[in-house]
Amino acid sequence: AHMAFGRWAEVWQERKRQRVLVQRCLGKLAQRTMAAGFEQWASLVQDMKAAAEARERAAKALAYMTHRTLHGAFGRWVEMRAEAEQQKALVARSLARVLKRAMAAGFAQWAEVWQE
């Protein structure tokens, strides 16, 4: 009976040692899996951050180009508006001269007719 107990104790100790080894192996495997998962997650976060920064740079570039285009268009509109005002003033002066000549000629003709 004593030998049977000794044999049972040896088997129990061996199984306990094997259980500890299996738990260590499973722990290392789980750590590797978790580490790989974390690395993958960290890489994904970094890629998402880089993509967001690229989108932000693209949006700023588009805003700059749009602003530059609008600024140029507004500048051209201001120039065209000033030129139109000059043309309007020139036409008004020319028309005033023509009207004054016509009025003067008409007055002279009236005065001539009136004096006869």
What is the percent of helical residues?
over 70%
Q: What Rg is obtained from the alpha carbons, in whole angstroms?
A: 49 Å
> What integer is the average pLDDT?
90
Uncertain regions: pLDDT < 50 for 5+ in a row? none
Structural classification: mainly alpha
Number of strands: 0
Largest sheet: none
What's the number of helices? 1
In whole angstroms, the N-to-C terminal distance is 168 Å
Query: What does the overall shape look like?
Result: rod-shaped
Strand content: under 5%
Secondary-structure element order, N to C: H
In words, what does this structure look like?
This protein has 116 residues and is mostly helical. It has one helix at residues 2-115. The longest helix has 114 residues, at 2-115.
What's the structural blueprint in terms of helices and strands?
Layout: H1 2-115
Task: Give the structure's gist in a few sentences.
This protein is 98% helix and 0% strand.
Any descriptors?
single chain, 116 residues, mainly alpha, 1 helix, 98% helix
